[in-house]
Amino acid sequence: MDEREKLARIRLIQTRHIGPMTFSLLIQRYGSAVAALAAIPDLAARGGRKLSIASLADAKAELAANDTAGAKLVWRDGDSYPLRLAQFDDAPVTLSARGNLHLLHQPMIALVGARNASINAIRHAESLARELGEAGYVIVSGMARGIDAAAHRGAMATGTIGVIAGGIDIIYPPENRALFRQIVDEGLLLAEMRPGTAPTPRHFPTRNRIIASLALGVVVIEAASKSGSLITAREAGERGSEVMAIPGSPLDPRSNGCNQLIRDGATLVQDASDIIEAVGQRRTVEVPPKKTIWIKMPQTKLTDAEISKCREIIISGLGGDPVDVDDLIAWCDKPSAVVWAAILELELAGQLTRHYGNRVSRQFEF
């Protein structure tokens, strides 16, 4: 793509209320980010509120920051983007990447777990990562201390991908500085946030969805009952990946999450052979062709009156719980293109929130 379109895409991504799914709808409807930018003010006004578009200067600064960090931008509709991730409607529009991009096209298994892991668990994670790597799998994890760091170390020789919660130029936690540098040289670092973004608690679930989407299966090795690793496991299950857990002592709180996962249906695994057997047929994944990775918005002639009436129906009918868009189309009893257009306008105005799995909910002000 040319520089103008690239900058327009970054401005769209940076603009409030525009996530990956909304970005997809805008590209489908207007054909390019440049055209979508021009249409956004009017669309948001129709939804009932003004929307400020991210500035050109900010977009240029993001490109420059990636260059300074030695990172490449991997676009969702580009050849370097991993096909398994691209199949999901909430896949990032772009990722900052540092390292060896060829790893994105190999089968992956995620190993995640406690930051304050036991010595035995850390040793086991490192051993599992090494054995799975030797069997041909790239190991994905979240660059945290404990289990994540052990998994990356174990798979360094065969291929590991670290997905970080902040910007590609932010090393977190600080004690993993040497590990970060080694992964840049020998593996691959990925970040969805723009350079310079310090990780905050709200960024970690966002990071976890990428890990879950990339991997054929997620293995949890020590996790407390409220661990963030359980979020990754839940995301994996919702996305059709294998969820696995290593059982632990009921007397150790760090094992409660793993034991809970097994009780709830996760596959009990103990060694690399168990994990390889569990992922089994998932090694090759059916994904849509590149040209169909964006959400499809029906193309038909729309009238302002129809869309306006549909907006009223949606606002009066939606609550705080997510509703499938197909159900919303049936509820509105309007052509699907009209409903999609009304959803887009309400979302840009901040009155709707979009959720993974083609669902939306009402955004209430407090």
Task: Throw out a few tags for this protein.
alpha/beta, 12 strands, single chain, 366 residues, 3 domains, three-stranded antiparallel sheet, Rossmann fold, Arc Repressor Mutant, subunit A
What does this structure look like?
There is one protein chain. The protein has 366 residues and is α/β, with parallel strands linked by helices. The protein has 3 domains: 3-70, no CATH class; 96-283, Rossmann fold (3-Layer(aba) Sandwich); 295-362, Winged helix-like DNA-binding domain superfamily/Winged helix DNA-binding domain (Arc Repressor Mutant, subunit A). It is 45% helix and 14% strand. The chain has 15 helices and 12 strands. It has helices spanning 3-14, 20-30, 33-47, 56-69, 83-86, 119-134, 147-154, 177-186, 203-214, 228-238, 256-263, 272-279, 304-317, 325-332, 336-348, and strands at 72-75, 94-99, 108-113, 138-141, 160-164, 188-191, 217-221, 242-246, 267-268, 323-324, 352-355, 359-362. It has a 9-stranded mixed β-sheet, with helices on both faces. A 3-stranded antiparallel β-sheet has the order 10-12-11. Strand 4 (138-141), helix 7 and strand 5 form a beta-alpha-beta unit. Helix 6 packs parallel to helix 7 and helix 6 packs across helix 12 (272-279). The chain is globular, with a radius of gyration of 21 Å. The model is unreliable at 284-293 (pLDDT under 50).
